[in-house]
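Retro notes (design track)

What went well: tokenization of the new backbones is finally stable.
What didn't: we kept losing track of which sequence belonged to which structure.
Fix going forward: every design gets posted as structure first, then sequence, in one message. First example under the new rule, 182 residues:
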């Protein structure tokens, strides 16, 4: 059992949903600007596990859907989810579920945590890219997959790898003082 106590676990999903929101507001300018939102998602899953992490991700999306400004650029509402990049936001739920399943099967071993993040991120990329391809054509077919991948995935692979490494490093530093939070 961790040092904080089991009953404190009830506060983790909303607390980490807020962490994801704060990370989504941190914009790092580059040729293709990106946020630290993915870092927040990955850190959430690593720190509080797949079950609570998925609840946290669902809560984050719910907060945004009801109008709290938790998405990139302090945006909110159903319009953000229904936009061209909304599939990536919904893909976070699949990321959480995949992480949960793999870490459960792998008994929270380090390899299962890494595999959960990699496969979860791949599912998020896939869902978001298909969503973008359908959205881009207005539902009248699908945009070219190579074009969609070059716009929506390729520019984010290296930053997402960096954010993943940073999330694992941050979790290790925090867990040194708190123990596991799940």
């Amino acid at each position: 059992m961790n040092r904080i106590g089991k009953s404190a676990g009830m506060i983790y999903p909303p607390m980490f949903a807020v962490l994801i929101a704060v990370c989504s507001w941190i914009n790092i300018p580059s040729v293709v600007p990106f946020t630290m939102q993915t870092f927040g998602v990955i850190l959430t899953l690593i720190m509080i596990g797949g079950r609570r992490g998925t609840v946290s991700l669902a809560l984050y999306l719910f907060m945004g859907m009801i109008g709290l400004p938790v998405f990139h650029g302090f945006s909110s509402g159903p319009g953000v989810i229904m936009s061209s990049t909304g599939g990536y936001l919904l893909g976070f739920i699949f990321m959480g579920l995949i992480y949960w399943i793999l870490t459960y099967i792998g008994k929270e071993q380090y390899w299962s945590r890494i595999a959960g993040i990699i496969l979860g991120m791949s599912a998020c990329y896939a869902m978001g890219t298909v969503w973008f391809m359908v959205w881009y054509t207005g539902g009248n077919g699908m945009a070219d997959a190579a074009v969609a991948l070059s716009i929506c995935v390729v520019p984010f692979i290296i930053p997402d790898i960096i954010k993943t490494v940073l999330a694992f490093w941050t979790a290790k530093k925090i867990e040194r003082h708190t123990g596991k939070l799940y």
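Added context from the reviewer: The chain has one domain: 6-175.
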